[in-house]
Amino acid sequence: MGIEEHRNWDSVDYTNLLSGNLFPPNFMWGVATASHQIEGGNTNNWSAFEPRSKSGQLSGNACDHWNRKEEDIQLIKDLNVSHYRFSIEWSRIEPQQGIWDEDAVQWYSDLVDQLLDKGIQPMATLHHFTHPLWWDEKGGFENENNIDDWIRFCVKMFDVLSDRIDWWCTINEPAVFASMGYVLGEFPPGERSFKKTRIVSTNLMRAHARCYQTLKSMEHGKRAHIGLVKNINLFDPYRRWNPLHRLQARLLDGMFNLCWIKGLMTGRFKAPSALRSKEIPGLKGSSDFIGVNYYTHLLATPFMPTKVDIDPLIRPWEQRTDFRYPMYAEGLRRAFDMVSCLNLPIIVTENGVADDDDDMRPEHIRRHLQITGEAIADGMDIRGFYHWSLMDNFEWAEGYDQRFGLYHVDFETKERTLKESGALYSEIVKAHRVPQVVILAGGLGTRLGERTKQMPKSLINVSGKPILSHILDWAGAQGCMEALILTGHLGEQFDGFRHEGMALTFHQESEPLGTGGALWNARHLIQDRFILLWGDDFHPIDYSELVAYHEQESSPLTLTVTTEHGEMNLLHVDGKIAQYDKSTSPPSEFNGYESGTSVVEKRVLLEHGKDGKWSWEETVYPEMSMKASAYLDNTKFWDMGTPERLERLAEFLNKTSL
Which of 411, 432, 453 is the last residue of a domain? Predict the structure, then answer.
């Protein structure tokens, strides 16, 4: 259970949320949805149950996401997030047993492609409360033999999508699925049976273990990150001094939380209300990460209501959400502590609040992100945060009465409107994001011999892979999620080039245009601020410090300058670039060398750019005299322009772990 901490939130300083200093640069910022809640037009176990649900409302066409995915992907992009968690609707993929709907498969494949094109990394969930009616009629997870059908579906989708999706969730909230469907009767099949709860819970863990082991054995399986998503619902004794309240909280905590976590840790699973644990083959070590969904805590007494439509107890100082449970952000840290025994990376795969008028959600976001950032500062391995949800949607048994979205949805017109909370989340994310990387990767090099006369230097293998891959490795570790690769006129040589965890856009010229011409020709793909890199230089500099300096100086262009180089090609005075000359005989007063990493405001390109072939550095740097800033940093950089330099770079990469 842990200690029930409460803090005075009025005294908390949120400054770091908007200064960009609370989260690491490669943090996974995301939003989450589930297929049945947004797609519309589904026929599955939930659509069949809806007339008997608490609200009696039908999902119908929901948010009509199935027909509006391009619009919704842009909404995700507009939030500045780098990741999107969605679920794959099995009932669409296999509407009848053994019959695949390839059009539906293609829809999800297109969704992934369009997300990646926008620089958004997909995370797919394979079971999020819904499955086909034919499988439900066979008993679903009540029958262990039925797991074969679900595994076949998982294999099908992994085979199609795993070349582009690196993050996979097997089963979403197994404890919620079992308890709401078979204890409280609020989810399909709407039963109240502890016996079936034990059976279903055990089969959910069997299904997860089999899914993990099966997908790991497939092509791309070793590269993929596959994990279980566990809802952590904390239980605290209502009267802390009352032993019966403490006992009830401990029992509920064990059934809803600890038995599932212990199962993952030990490979033996003791289902809720079971007397003995069972060994489940493949369960131990069956997650590469643990997804944590967190919303609240509940105050336990022996007389707790067994219906969710009765207001739960809350502390006098706590604020109720529209769902009637309290906002309790302190519990998120306790959830992290609870799963830390697994020694796995943690991802907040869901966190949000039901708040119709959006007056609570901004503070809810601030508090939970503050808690997450503090946990990271304390050394916890928390990789990402997915807000629930992208937009208002069909909230299961509550129908359309509860709104969780960062975008308001008019369910009559389907119009989406950004809420204040959505703008806040976007602002916090943007403060922590590193700008787009633009890499001049098309340069040839005669000094490296015959191979680079017709092959860009950026594709030369160094220490086992192209230098471009090493550059992207470093950029990705610095938090860059998007890279624009300017390939010159030999762009076909980059066909099939991929980099895990980054969205790559390639742009080719029909003829050699020089560095400036290449940038000008791709200006429609370049964002308002970008980091400019050279495709044959490796420069492991801290991007966040460089960008912070650029912002501090309010500079249109900031060049990284080293004073420790055998040659000098510029003069810097009072933090500004006064002169630049890359000739072999620079003036003696030159005191710095451009070391290959710049931060550029796009307006500089638009003001100085022109058609045709021209050099970026020989044109823009002189014209920006005493306007461009010099960021002094003597981090070693590696120019592979000659065989000797290439050899030194290889030696460095072979002995260095970056």
Answer: 432
